[in-house]
Amino acid sequence: MKFAIPTRFQIIGVALTLFGLTVILQMVNIQGNANVMLIRDQSNLIYEYNVEKITPERGTIYDRWGNLLVGNKEVYEVGVELKTVNSLGNEETIASVLANVLGLDYQDTLARISTPYDPANGQVYVVVADFVSPSKIEQLRSIKDEYQKTYAQQRKDSGSAQVLSGVNWNPHLQRSYPENYLASNILGFYSMLDIEKGEAHLGVEEQYNALLRGTPLEVASPVDPNKIKEFVNVPPGSSLVLTIDREIQANVEEILDNAVASNGAQSGSIIVMDPKTGEILAMASNPRMNPNVYWEYQDNYFNRTIDISYEPGSVFKVLTMAIGLDTGAVKPDTEFIDTGSINIGGITIYNWDRAAWGPQDMTGCLQHSLNVCLAWVATEIGPNNFYKYLLEFGMGRRTNVDLAGEVAWPLSVPGDTWVDADIAANSFGQGLAVTPIQMITSISAVANDGKMMSPHILKSVLDNGQRRDSSPMVTGKPISEETADTLTEMLAVSLEREASSALVDGYRLAGKTGTAEIPGPLGYTSDTTNASFVGWGPVDDPQFIVYIWIEKPTSSIWGSVVAAPVFHDVVSELVVLMDIPPDDIRHQLNQKVVKE
Prior knowledge:
Elements: H1 7-32, H2 34-48, E1 49-54, E2 61-62, E3 68-81, H3 82-88, H4 91-102, H5 106-113, E4 125-132, H6 134-150, E5 167-176, H7 184-187, E6 189-192, E7 198-201, H8 203-207, H9 209-213, E8 217-222, E9 239-242, H10 246-262, E10 267-273, E11 280-286, H11 304-307, H12 317-327, E12 336-338, E13 341-344, E14 347-350, E15 358-360, H13 362-367, H14 371-381, H15 383-392, H16 420-427, H17 436-447, E16 452-453, E17 458-463, E18 466-469, E19 474-476, H18 481-498, E20 510-517, E21 529-537, E22 544-551, H19 559-562, H20 564-577, H21 583-595
Parallel strand pairs: 2-9
Antiparallel strand pairs: 1-8, 2-3, 3-4, 3-5, 6-7, 9-17, 10-11, 10-22, 12-15, 13-14, 16-19, 17-18, 20-21, 21-22
């Protein structure tokens, strides 16, 4: 006998069937949905993987011959697990050992590691020391192992455990300057605020920080160590090769330190540059700092060759004479009758010795460094041309040398604040301010056939097995080749006639001294001076240019007495280190090459 199924049960059956099919279809859809798959992957990443940011090893820095100037060394962070220490009660033992081995304060260390374990408030782990050397860690490891063997159980009489359980150490890298003080004003320093965060300060470290630090990576590693298939290799930051010659730098620093000490000077600076390329071979500054212990120094340990401006004095006469010759305002044999003074714009200008030197040609004006003559030359040039040329020489603006911290003092030109007397003062280096890097860059045009090169400290970048070299760059041609050669010869003759202490036997050199009064609130009332010298050589094929600035010497106020002998000492070392034969031998070798 057949029974009829009520219609409502049929409807319910169909509805349940459709609902089941819908659920199945939705499950299939969810399995293939991109958004759902993304959520699932993120969940897996959260619960099955640890995501951490890996900072690359900072790039190293070398001199032009591959000598290491800046690297990285392994150091350790030492910390204590509070849960372990709280349970064992070995705080006194740990504090005593850490105080003895690491030189920490016992009471302070004891107080810190006695903190109650409280994960709710983040009191889980205490860092007691950082940047600990591997040798200290070896001492701790030996003591920890020895204690573990001898005193494995708690001492019942004291209630404390004679073990170092809970003490951990983790390695990380610290910036290292193996040459200590050498070239520190060039290199700058890298301060480690903590393991994860550091800051680059000054010099190459700051200027090229983006290259040196590399690119951090976020890496997901399995929580289960059995699932780790390989370790991620994070490429280090780029390494740099500088134009600096380590041997030249070391010799120049020694000469500068001796000069500052022997002349009772406040400080000093020396730059050695290749005038043909703009490569800086040495850049010394006194005082200097040891970047390995940067925290021990104050802010006055910086690079005085780029970030301090001063009135240069008579070395500036090189530029005034270059402009005079290039504009045709004067020629080498132009005669000037020096009466010992000249009035320009209502201001009377005197020579450095207040004397009148009588008839002089332009070489004589440079030889005797006559303020009156050079002021007259500037008036013959005229304000428009004079300041137009100074701007072309780079006065009033940064050279853009690739070091952090360069400054520039604005050049006052004819306008609202400029007066007629300014051209007279400016002609011999008063009433304006420059940095040593500005002066050597501008005057290098005289040593390089009129072409001014961009000064630079970076020679090459080493990145991922590739080497990218920097190229010399001409920044301007303020004077003609003829003017440059003429003025070089005039300055060489000037030194030879004067029998300057700057001369070096066997080599013809060109150069100029500078003695600059130091202005104060009431004008030039102080007896202190800045002594300078700029020179280059050999005259017929300049391979180096040297700028020297000795600040506030007490042995003598004159650049010819203080700075010229320093130039002699620097060049005497340069010709050896740069393998430059004496002129007569070099000429013979050149003639032999031509004949062959």
